[in-house]
Each structure stands twice: as structure tokens, then as C-alpha cells.
Design brief:
Order of helices and strands: EEEHHHHHH
Distance between the termini: 51 Å
Number of strands: 3
Strand content: under 5%
Shape: globular
Cofactor: FAD
Oligomer: single chain
Strand order of the largest sheet: 1-2-3
Structural class: mainly alpha
CATH superfamily of the largest domain: ERV/ALR sulfhydryl oxidase domain
Domain ERV/ALR sulfhydryl oxidase: 66-166
Protein name: Sulfhydryl oxidase
Helix content: 40-55%
InterPro entries: ALR/ERV, ERV/ALR_sulphydryl_oxid_sf, ERV/ALR_sulphydryl_oxidase
CATH topology of the largest domain: Four Helix Bundle (Hemerythrin (Met), subunit A)
Organism: Clathrospora elynae
Number of helices: 6
Radius of gyration: 19 Å
Length: 177
Amino acid sequence: MAPGVTETPAKQETETSGYKKLANGIVLGPDGKPCRTCNDVASLFALSGKKPKSITTTASTLPSDCPPDVEALGRSSWTLLHSITATYPTNPTPQLQSETKTFLSTFGKLYPCWVCAEDFQTWMTRNTPRVSSRGEFGTWMCEAHNAVNEKLGKDVFDCGRWEERWRTGWKDGRCDF
């Protein structure tokens, strides 16, 4: 087990994947060490008692060539998912609709942060992916992202503007080239 990490059996969750979530919020992997993709960098630095090695690195960021923490992974994942919805056909074939649902299901199973993966899978069981058009898919993805934002105490996004944010660019022209 990692230094500074104490298990409280009554207050931890053990998942079938071998990951554990401790009472202090730190998520451990099957190896008993803090899961890099399930925790944020600031928490990991606080846990280890270490300071960032570079003066340009803060407790909330790591150099870009380091494995991502939960926040960097989330930002990158949402960028990918929203970009997929932005380029999704307006009238997808039944085959593409089926493949898209399979992709989302698989994504939810393979996502490196197990807590996030389980939350996404659970949300999808209550909110079946709507993939019959670009508009429906984009709104569904925005709703999925907003569910995470609400859980994290972040502002929700106006899903009526998802295309402007992810496909066409803002009407004020700041994304034009």
C-alpha cells in the first residue's frame, strides 16, 4: 500500500475490478497504490507530501508528457466525445447507429477511471443513447456531460448551444479562421 494511505475496511468500497475507494476519497488500484487516472494531481501531491519538481508545475498540473490525472482525462475524453457528435451524420444508417451505441457501451467499460466508468454506465442505463441524428446525439451527449458537471458541482451547459460550442463555433466569430 502507498505511504500515507490507510485503509478503513468499514468505510471503503471494494469493486469487482479490484479497485478500492477509501474514506478520504483516494481511489486505489488493484496493486494497492493510488490510481493515477481516478484521482486528481493535487490530491496525489497532498497524499505523498511531495512538491511539484518544476517551478512551472503547480499542484494541479503535471507536465504534458506525464500520464493524465482524472481532470486531464475527463477534459480530453469530453473533447473527443463532443467532437464525435459534431461530425456525426444528420441521418446515420441503422448500422452506424448500432455501432455508435456499441462504442458508447464499450467506452463506458474501458474508461480508465473506474468510478467515472461506473457512473457513465449507470447513467446510460437510465438514459439510453439517442443516436438517430446528429442533433439528438449532440443533445444526449451534452446531457451526459451536464450530469457529470452537476455531480462535480460545476455549471451546466445550455444544451441548446452544443452545436455552436462543438461544431460551428461561437456566433461572435472568435473561432473563425
